[in-house]
Specification:
The structure holds three protein chains of three kinds. Chain B is mainly beta. Helices cover about 10% and strands about 30% of the residues of chain B. Chain B has a single domain (about 1-75), classed as Beta-grasp domain (Ubiquitin-like (UB roll)). Chain C is of the alpha+beta class. Chain C is about 40% helix and about 15% strand. Classes of the chains: A alpha+beta, B mainly beta, C alpha+beta.
Chain lengths: ~150, ~80, ~600
């Protein structure tokens, strides 16, 4: 089984609501902040402006980030397939950020972060365009193919 | 029988019989047909229409249509 | 502070001094942000008699406390300054992505004063603010400017900039952001150009704190509701050009310089035609789900080439029906040109309309122009638009605005505007409340200071006779007060004006963001305060009843065939009652009692 947030590019309208609401979830203790710079899902427009992409981890079958991590801080859960980063072990070297060809790993205060699939994902709720879905299936490789085509 | 021209604006254009990308189309109705009859003919619900215009003047559901009339049906929208 | 970032950034372009200071909470509570806060800062600090294009003028960028929050459509900011087009206070609104990005750098307001010796660019990278040389990008169009700035290490910056029009002080030059979003009205781009400021590039990592996130989580449901309502669906699919059909059907689509209210070719410059011919996909501004933006591209086989955003409804009127251009490709091309040159499409259309009418009258000739310019001549119009942006040939005259051209060429009555600014795409002879709105707007023909269409034409919440004075002063005052608040909060009018209880909802969001309890009534009161402050500002510049005018075409020439035929705008009748209800004297000036009760000194 693979759990992940699936992105459907044709539906996206570049509104960034997913990014805004993800950041709300990860606010510091005691605060509620909309702070896109800490979001685990980021939106950008291609140079030719034909494509809008929400960069959210595909939970790859063979995560390049995991291979690139020199300290073994990145692991893939055998049950859910979710790829996780242990922030205590992370040294901030950014190898994972460079390794991810989908631009889905981000640095927040010198630690690498990425989507690790919330139980009730707010990004999915926030997306009024139905471009994000929580899926649990075995089609990671297919999604990987789709994503390569729209990569910015 | 009378023949009138109908212009369906915005999302109402889905109701055109000829093509969704038509700018207008001609339709035949029985003599004495009203706007209501025209909308029934197309299956357009009353609440989808905000403005009814017949030959560039305000129309009502009971307005009786005549041969050669032009009818515009406009959905709800606002300004910006 | 919640909602607000709590900081003002001041940049003196003459001395290069950059200072940050705290935002006074009392100022924030009284005037909110955006339009209100910008106006208050100008009111308190500006040498009011300064030349709008001189170094003393202040150019203010201001978001609101709701920008970047979960309030609906929360991606807006205002540019506030003294207008070189109207000579009044003015606030120009824009969306896109720059406003939210600006807020993440940690400031609520940017105040630009002075004038740089040479072309410069302001770079705001969180707390690092620098003034950089912009010689290499001065002269570039706005698209090229953004590309040049966002190369290599600045890929994640957002940019607001001027094009040749702003550089050349065209009186209706715009400040463009994110390609085709524009703070377009009132010539704010010329003020930026007069300061030798080419661009503001921003990137930030901060966030906006909110007091009650629960309300914003609920807002996600409302957001879906709005988007999935009939209106939301229509709007999201067809964009603002959907209104071409509404206006045309109601005989209020200004055509041939406001001579008519119906355009024969309306059906080929509307939202449907855009979908069928030029639309790539829709586009939402930051934090908005409506998707009303039009990402477009001219077809391969078109006479004209290019891509960008738009046209929006106002441009379908100003560079379409207003000048009898019934060709979507030509209209789209003119829209792209205005965006690239950094120019207001609305005043551009107003000027072109006046020029075409003067040409028809023989007041402007082939000798004056160097070519002919008859109604509907798209290529001639394109030629003149470029000339305006570069102040070449007749463009040098036209760059000074429609009123200037009309007066210069012997027919002041052909300028379709008020206080020197061209009207928006709503014909007042078919909706007279809008006429009152235009006449009393602080910056002239601007409709974004309120819009009566929802009530006068769509009959929401209940029908109203659009042809008579009855109830119009009350309606206009209500819309003006509401909109003054919306423009200060940092959100877009659309969702709030499209809903019945929009202002009530806005009060909930304002309370939830700031933690300060506000009711709908409180919002209207604040809006009233802001509107009166603008009026008082203008009063000090000598503006009064004599300037609350409409051209004779609207008040004396009967409306042409169609709905409302024969009607004129009963301005005089509405104006006196309007002043009285506003607590202003017979000359349209706020009384001391009114100002005092609103807390204005």
């Amino acid at each position: 089984m693979s759990k992940r947030i699936a992105f459907t590019e044709e539906n996206c309208t570049n509104c960034h609501l997913c990014s805004m609401y993800c950041s709300l979830v990860f606010s510091e203790q005691g605060k509620y902040e909309y702070r896109p710079a800490i979001s685990r899902i980021r939106v950008s427009e291609s140079d030719d402006q034909r494509t809008y992409a929400a960069h959210v981890c595909l939970q790859c079958a063979e995560p390049a980030c995991m291979d690139a991590c020199p300290v073994g801080a990145i692991t893939k859960d055998p049950h859910t397939g979710v790829v996780g980063i242990d922030s205590w072990q992370c040294t901030g070297c950014e190898s994972c950020v460079d390794a991810c060809e989908f631009d889905c790993v981000f640095m927040v205060e010198d630690v690498a972060v990425k989507c690790e699939v919330c139980d009730d994902p707010l990004c999915v709720k926030a997306c009024a365009a139905h471009a994000l879905h929580l899926v649990e299936d075995d089609q990671v490789d297919e999604q990987g193919e789709l994503y390569r085509e729209v990569r910015i | 029988m009378i023949e009138v021209t109908i212009v369906l604006a915005g999302p109402l254009r889905r109701y055109y019989r000829t093509s969704e990308t038509a700018k207008h189309e001609r339709v035949q109705l029985s003599s004495g047909a009203t706007i209501r009859d025209l909308m029934d003919h197309y299956g357009i619900p009353r609440e989808k229409v905000s403005h009814i215009v017949v030959n560039r003047l305000r129309g009502e559901m009971d307005t009786v249509l005549e041969d050669g009339d032009e009818i515009r049906l406009i959905p709800l929208a606002a300004g910006g | 502070m919640k909602g607000w970032m709590g900081k003002i950034l001041r940049v003196n372009l003459t001395t290069g001094e950059i200072v940050t200071e705290p935002l006074d909470p009392r100022l924030a509570q009284g005037y909110v942000g955006g339009r209100g806060l910008g106006t208050k800062l100008l009111y308190d600090e500006l040498d009011i008699n300064c030349d709008p294009l001189g170094p003393e003028n202040m150019l203010i960028f201001a978001t609101g406390p709701l920008t970047l929050t979960g309030a609906l459509s929360s991606g807006r900011y205002m540019v506030v300054t003294k207008s070189p087009l109207t000579g009044t206070i003015c606030s120009s609104n824009s969306g896109g992505y720059f406003p939210a990005a600006f807020k993440t750098a940690g400031y609520d307001v940017l105040i630009l004063t002075g004038k740089a010796e040479r072309p410069v660019m302001l770079v705001i990278d969180d707390d690092r603010v620098t003034i950089e040389d912009a010689a290499s990008i001065w002269g570039m169009d706005t698209k090229e400017t953004v590309s040049a700035i966002r190369s290599e290490k600045r890929k994640d910056f957002y940019v607001a900039c001027i094009g040749p029009a702003g550089e050349n002080l065209v009186r209706y030059a715009a400040i463009m952001n994110d390609d085709s979003r524009a703070a377009a009205r009132s010539g704010v781009g010329a003020v930026m150009g007069s300061k030798n400021l080419k661009a503001v590039a921003v990137r930030g990592t901060k966030g906006v704190a909110v007091a009650d996130p629960e309300v914003f989580l609920k807002s996600l449901v409302i957001s879906d509701h709005v988007k999935e309502s009939d209106l939301g669906i229509a709007f999201g699919e067809f964009g603002t050009p959907l209104f071409v059909d509404v206006m045309n059907a109601n005989n209020i689509m200004p055509t041939k310089n406001f001579q008519y209210g119906f355009f024969e070719d309306g059906d080929v410059i509307n939202g449907a035609e855009i979908i069928d011919r030029t639309l790539v996909r829709g586009k939402s501004c930051y934090g908005c789900s409506m998707n009303c933006g039009r990402n477009t591209r001219l077809p391969e086989d078109s006479k004209y080439q290019g891509s960008g955003d738009g046209p929006e409804y106002e441009t379908c009127y100003s560079l379409g029906s207003n000048i009898l251009v019934g060709d979507l490709d030509a209209l789209t091309k003119m829209n792209y040109i205005c965006n690239e040159m950094g120019m207001d499409t609305m005043d551009a259309g107003s000027v072109l309309g006046a020029v075409m009418e003067l040409y028809e009258m023989g007041n402007i000739t082939d000798t004056d122009l160097g070519y002919s310019l008859e109604w509907g001549d798209a290529d001639g119009s394109i030629r003149l638009l470029y000339q305006i942006a570069h102040r070449e040939g007749f463009g040098d005259v036209a760059a000074q605005g429609g009123e200037h051209v009309a007066v210069e060429y012997g027919a002041p009555d052909v300028f379709m505007g008020s206080k020197g600014q061209g009207f928006a795409g709503y014909h007042p002879r078919g909706m007279v409340g809008q006429g009152l709105l235009y006449a009393t707007s602080p910056e002239g023909g601007n409709h974004t200071t309120g819009n009566t269409i929802q009530r006068e034409i769509n009959g929401i919440p209940e029908p109203m006779d659009p042809f008579t004075a009855e109830g119009k002063p009350e309606l206009v005052i209500s819309r003006q007060n509401e909109t003054a608040f919306v423009d200060s909060a940092g959100v877009c009018v659309f969702p709030y004006m499209l809903m019945d209880n929009g202002i009530e909802l806005l009060a909930e969001f304002y309370t939830a963001a700031t933690g300060l309890k506000h009711t709908e009534g409180d919002l209207r009161r604040i809006g009233e305060r802001i509107f009166n402050l603008e009026r008082e500002f203008n009063r000090r510049l000598g503006f009064a009843k004599k300037d609350d005018t409409l051209p004779k075409r609207l008040t004396e020439e009967p409306h042409t065939p169609g709905i409302g035929e024969g009607n004129v705008v009963p301005l005089a009748e509405m104006l006196d009652r309007y002043y009285s209800l506003r607590g202003w004297d017979l000359d349209g000036l706020p009384t001391e009692g009114t100002l005092e009760s609103l807390g204005i000194e």
